[in-house]
Amino acid sequence: MKVIIIGNGAAGMAAAEAIRERDADCEITMYSDEDRFHYSRPRIIEYLGGSVQADKLTIRGAEYYDKRRIRLVKPAVIESVDPAGRKVALRGGGEDSFDRLVIAAGASAFLPPMEGSDLEGVFTLRTIDDADKIMAFCRGKRRAVVVGGGLLGIETAASLAKAGLDTTVVEIFDRLLPRQLDTDAAAMLRSMLEKSGLKFLLTRQSSSIGRCGSGLALNFSDGSSMDADIVVFSSGIRSNTSLASAAGISCDKGIIVDEFMETGAPGIYAAGDVAQFSGTVYGLWPAAREQGAFAGRNAAGERIAYPGSLVSSRLKVSGIEMASLGSIEAGEGIFAISRLIGSSFRRLFLKDGRLVGAILIGDTTDYLKLQKLLKSGEIVDDPGSL
User: Fold this and answer.
1) What is the pLDDT of residues 259-307, one digit of tens each?
2) How far apart are CA 144 and CA 230, in angstroms?
3) 319-385 has which fold?
4) Environment class of residue 101 by beta-carbon count within 10 Å: exposed (0-12), middle (13-18) or buried (19+)?
5) Could you tell me which residues are beta bridge partners of residue 124?
6) Residue 60 half-sphere exposure, CB side, CA atoms within 13 Å?
């Protein structure tokens, strides 16, 4: 059997490893549009902040691929997929055939289509190359604005501040991390981050970018604006669905997959940031790893259903640790227990005696314990003991 995997990120590597574990003889070829071995995308923030060198981000080096007989072709762009002919075409010429195909093409950082978004000094952050461009541009600059108060936005801002830039985070919502924190927790985190030197501008919607002297002016829908030398957008991601869509494979926000991570085209699977399962594109590294493993197992001949992933996030900025797990939405039957001890805060969300969500700020030592409890659905007899 011959398997082609498009993508060399979290999902693609997990798929390759799962296939090889179950089939010692099949031919595995991975195509990557980056000229790098498998590396940790979440740690790009550390690289941007100067904490690690680029080579330290590599998770799987050349020897790993060789030992497991995984053929990596890089850099290479797959131009098209032919589901009926069971082949892919490469940009620049050439094609390759497959018995099974795993599309793990990931996602791209979203750059809002506003006036001035193509100006010099406007960036997004998704790859090591993106970080290199940002760091090169920042030399000699003083002011940075990060648009987006989510996980990546806050981490990016902290890295730019560490590099010596006066940094402000702009967020359209009335709180930071609106997907991970409720109002109380977000206010506490903001206060702690402000003490570390970060600045925040909430409830502001960016409308355009213009030139202001030798720098930039970020304009808002309310008529106000702020000056900066560099603007980094952290406004979410968009799944790279164009390849699948052109091949006639059903897509929505992502490539639509069933519980076996299979697309509407038999023998073609999708996983990670490019995949949409049960209406959701997770956009998280752990979920991409899980989906890739299930896609690989099914591509190798198993018939095993993916149950979905637990949504959880962790953040460590300027020595401040934060974690969010499961659902933190208020609703009928939801019971919340809060505890504040010094600079540590936790809020647990329960329904019908079961833990459904948690927020931790400061002390996150119980993260794995709570994650396990969430996954098990076990009844909590004494919520106060958690």
Assistant:
1) 999 999 999 999 999 999 999 999 999 999 999 999 999 999 999 999 9
2) 5
3) Enolase-like; domain 1 (3.30.390)
4) buried
5) 233
6) 20
Residue 99 token pair: 């018995």
Cα radius of gyration rounded to whole Å, the chain: 22
pLDDT in tens, 163-212: 899 999 999 999 999 889 999 999 999 999 999 899 999 999 999 999 99
Per-position b or e across 312-344, b if 16+ CB within 10 A of its CB: bbbbebeebbbbbbbebeeeeeeeeeeeeeeee
Amino acid 315 reads L
Q: Which residues contact 114 (CB under 8 A, 6 or more apart)?
A: 206, 207, 208, 209
**pTM of the full predicted structure?**
0.93
What is the torsion angle, in degrees rounded to the nearest 10, for the CA atoms of residue 201, residue 207, residue 213 and residue 215? Answer: 60
Q: Identical fold at 122-233 and 319-385?
A: no
* Residue 183 CB neighbours (<10 A): 10
Looking at CATH, the fold of the domain delimited by 122-233 is given as FAD/NAD(P)-binding domain (3.50.50)
Q: What does 327-348 look like in DSSP terms, one character per residue?
A: -----TTEEEEEEEETTEEEEE
- Whole-angstrom distance, CA of residue 253 vs CA of residue 279: 8
The domain ranges of the chain are 2-108+237-299, 122-233, 319-385
Domain at 2-108+237-299, CATH from 1.10.357.140, 3.10.50.40, 3.50.50.60, 3.90.960.10: 3.50.50.60
**232: Cβ–Cβ under 8 A, 6 or more apart, which residues?**
122, 123, 124, 125, 134, 144, 145, 146, 147, 156, 160
